[in-house]
Specification:
Elements: H1 16-26, E1 33-37, E2 44-50, E3 53-58, H2 61-74, E4 78-81, E5 84-87, E6 96-97, E7 101-102, E8 107-110, H3 115-118, H4 125-137, E9 142-143, H5 149-159, H6 164-170, H7 177-181, H8 194-213, E10 219-221, E11 226-227, H9 229-234, E12 240-242, E13 253-255, H10 260-277, E14 282-284, H11 319-338, E15 345-349, H12 351-355, H13 362-370, E16 377-381, H14 390-393, E17 401-406, E18 418-419, H15 420-432, E19 438-444, H16 453-462, H17 471-483, H18 488-501, E20 503-504, E21 511-512, E22 515-516, H19 539-550, H20 557-587, H21 591-611, H22 619-628, H23 635-646, H24 667-685, H25 690-706, H26 719-730
Parallel strand pairs: 1-3, 8-9, 8-19, 10-14, 14-15, 15-16, 16-17, 17-19
Antiparallel strand pairs: 2-3, 2-6, 2-7, 4-5, 11-13, 12-13, 18-20, 21-22
Helix pairs in contact: 1-2, 4-8, 5-10, 10-11, 11-13, 15-16, 17-18, 18-19, 19-20, 20-21, 20-24, 20-26, 21-24, 21-26, 22-23, 23-25, 24-25
Length: 731
């Protein structure tokens, strides 16, 4: 069976890497699939099943895997997700065909620079192999591939005369490397063990090998200008700026692209990278991610000292000067890559255009892009669920290539939310927008993984022209593949659940009044939180849908997972109300009422913590994963401390504490609850002082991070019963 949209070439692309993905999912039954890869001008596939065999004709290995998985999903035979798989193939595969399916996007992009800190810092090859398979099954062909670069940076800076002591002070800990790479921090949780750097080097070789054999085009790192402090100090004549202190960390140092050293370092980095990992085409360089460019008068603008780049407020500068400086930065950043790799494309995240929109006006964006060739840049417009007007402000990035998408997940926090209706409407609108410019793809750019997997399944279905189905029809197919059952009751339950939680585009509580935390429970306690407004969503619809889902009698691990996940979310929202009730009572002097609510807070928190032991993600597992990366008695506790810090205090003197909060067993009972009980005790006894209480809380948090007390994973003996009892309390 051929595809009219796919002109054949002389030699078809080998299918065996794609076949291997299927084998890992469905075992020997992958032999029942014949993958016919015919490279063409558009990403496409078609499946045709008859006689107990399935033929998938596709434009690439990734499209072939996607086509095979579409068949398995459409007939309810298999499902894959972060939380588990379901595979149930009959002896004879059912007959049917898809007809040609073409993606409206040339590329489907995946991952965020931050994912490599919030989720993957301690992944081994087995876990990465599974994720790459997940990418292929969902038709992703352009993942970010940020692992292993510390080896290249180490070689680069050693070649510039820095010694091991300088580098020990420079590299940040494993869970914080993304922000080191983007120039936000330097030397936090240092020193980074050389053994970790070497392990990541070998891991990246395998990652890139697997991606490339599937025909993926990974996005690789490039030099964006940030240099170690030791390098800045040893080059006093270079045009190096002291940048702003990001989120309460100490300042970092950025080399002006006009300085001859910039092109030299950029070219040398690419040479070292390609020697280690092989050449790529797309190279990511984010010079100003949540950092402001120096744009004042003068070529050096104070150089190593003060500049507009390290001022908290947006400096008032001559617009013409600002425009010229930005145009020069954009051109030279591009040229630093293209001069070393003439066929390469500079990639940058567009997050800065929304996050720092006071600086990045339409005129500023236009100036920055003005001197960059249209085919020399691809902008990842990642934040359309948070900053939906960036592409309009940027006028579709003035003819440059760009990828449209959403972050969805922030800090790998896991409240239950997403907006399926918005995604469907928005994707239809963007693909038909006459002002879309050189739109080249769609992507999902989560800061962390392992939650709300339905959002990602739905989005990548939409990216393969999946918007033709109604939501109820899509849910019927999704639940049939996920649970192995097809019934109106399941679809009705899920439609209620979607109404309850999956109509929320952005989880506003996570940054309420500049305090981070997925739920009120997860925030550092303060009496001012008595004014917390609560969470978005329709709680009554969620409760109704959850009750229906829990009543379905079917032996499905993924059904149990979903019931527990929705229950702990609903219970966490209830818990937030209890906390707020306690705070209001104590504030108003009703100690008895405050105590009653505080007692209930403890009871419900412990019940949720116990229930979450049934889920695959928990604090004990995160710590175990971190410690397993260590080879010595020194490394293991170091990695544990790094892992503990990231999901709790984060770092710096700003507002990042609890940014990566989690609804995990071990955190609810042993971290969040003790903090709230410290505040409740101060309010109960009349000893509450805002500054002193916060100081005690910070000291307690830091002691928890340094603790060597083992963290246990407690698996409930009757998770379904526990969920039912907790749901009864909430009703």
């Amino acid at each position: 069976m051929g595809l009219a949209a796919l002109p054949s070439v002389a030699a078809a692309t080998p299918a065996h890497p794609a076949q291997a993905v299927l084998t890992r999912l469905i075992g020997r039954r992958a032999n029942d699939f014949m993958l016919d890869i015919q490279p063409g001008s558009a990403p496409a596939y078609a499946y045709d099943a008859h006689g107990g065999r399935v033929t998938v004709t596709a434009s690439s290995p990734v499209a072939a895997v996607r086509g095979a998985y579409a068949y398995l999903s459409d007939f309810g035979l298999a499902h894959t997700s972060w939380e588990g798989d379901r595979v149930a193939l009959p002896r004879r595969l059912p007959q049917g065909g898809s007809g040609p399916v073409t993606s409206p996007f040339a590329h489907r992009v995946y991952m965020n620079t931050c994912t490599f800190g919030y989720t993957t810092p301690f992944w081994d090859w087995k876990r990465w192999r599974r994720e790459i398979d997940w990418m292929a099954l969902h038709g992703i062909d352009m993942p970010l591939a940020m692992e292993g670069q510390e080896w290249v940076w180490r070689e680069l800076w050693r070649g510039e005369g820095l010694d091991d002591r300088d580098l020990d002070a420079y590299f940040s800990g494993p869970a914080f490397t993304p922000w080191q790479r983007m120039g936000n921090i330097e030397g936090y949780q240092a020193p980074l063990p050389l053994s970790w750097i070497v392990k990541k080097r070998e891991l990246q070789k395998r990652i890139l090998g697997a991606m490339r054999e599937l025909g993926m085009e990974p996005i690789l790192p490039a030099f964006a200008g940030y240099v170690p402090k030791a390098f800045a100090e040893s080059h006093p004549q270079a045009r190096i700026y002291r940048m702003r202190a990001w989120e309460g960390f100490h300042e970092t140092y950025w080399l002006d692209p006009a300085d001859p050293l910039f092109a030299k370092l950029a070219g040398r980095f690419l040479d070292l990278y390609d020697q280690t990992y092989g050449k790529g085409r797309f190279y990511l360089a984010d010079a100003f991610n949540e950092m402001l460019p120096p744009v004042g008068d003068g070529p050096v603008e104070g150089g190593y000292g003060d500049s507009t780049a390290n001022k908290e407020a947006v400096a008032e500068v001559d617009p013409a000067v600002k425009a010229e400086r930005l145009a020069a930065y954009g051109q030279r950043l591009h040229d630093s890559i293209r001069s070393a790799r003439p066929d390469a494309v500079w990639v940058m995240q567009g997050w800065l255009f929304g996050a720092d929109q006071g600086f990045w006006t339409g005129d500023a964006i236009a100036a920055f892009l003005r001197n960059v060739p249209d085919d020399g840049l691809m902008v990842l417009d990642i934040g359309n669920d948070r900053y939906p007007k960036v592409r309009q402000t940027a006028q579709a990035f003035h003819g440059k290539g760009w990828i449209y998408g959403y972050v969805h997940n922030y800090g790998a926090s896991n409240p239950i939310y997403g907006d399926l209706g918005f995604y469907r409407r928005d994707m239809a609108a963007i693909t038909s927008d006459p002002a879309r410019g050189r739109l080249q793809g769609f992507g999902v750019f989560p800061e962390g993984l392992d939650s709300n997997s339905i959002v990602y399944a739905y989005l990548y279905d939409l990216a393969w022209n999946g918007g033709t189905k109604s939501l109820s029809d899509w849910l019927a197919g999704y639940t049939r593949a996920r649970y192995g059952i097809s019934s109106p009751e399941v679809v009705t339950a899920w439609l209620d659940i979607v109404k309850g939680v999956y109509g929320t585009r952005y989880w506003t509580p996570r940054w309420w009044r500049s305090t981070a935390g997925a739920y009120l429970l997860c925030k550092r306690p303060d009496i001012a939180m008595a004014d917390f407004e609560g969470a978005p969503g329709d709680r009554a619809a969620l409760r109704a849908g959850l009750a229906r889902l829990a009543a379905i009698r079917h032996d499905s691990p993924l059904l149990r997972y979903d019931v527990i996940e929705f229950t702990r979310h609903l219970a966490s929202l209830h818990l937030d109300n209890l906390i707020r009730t306690a705070l209001v009572a104590y504030r108003d002097g009703d100690v008895a009422a405050g105590d009653r609510s505080a007692t209930e807070v403890r009871r419900v928190t412990i019940a949720i913590d116990d229930l979450m032991g049934a889920q695959p993600c928990h604090l004990a597992g995160w710590i175990e994963q971190a410690r397993a990366y260590g080879d010595t008695a020194t490394e293991k506790p170091y990695y544990e401390r790094n892992a503990r810090a990231q999901v709790t205090v984060w770092g710096g003197k700003g507002n990042l504490h609890d940014y990566a909060s989690k609804a995990w067993q071990g955190l609810y009972r042993d971290f969040y609850l003790p903090r709230w009980e410290m505040l409740f005790a101060a309010l109960r006894t009349g000893t509450y002082n805002p500054a002193a209480t916060t100081e005690r809380l910070i000291a307690w948090e830091n002691a928890w991070v340094e603790s060597k007390e083992p963290v246990a994973h407690r698996v409930p003996s009757d998770a379904a019963g526990d969920a039912a009892r907790l749901l009864a309390i909430l009703s």
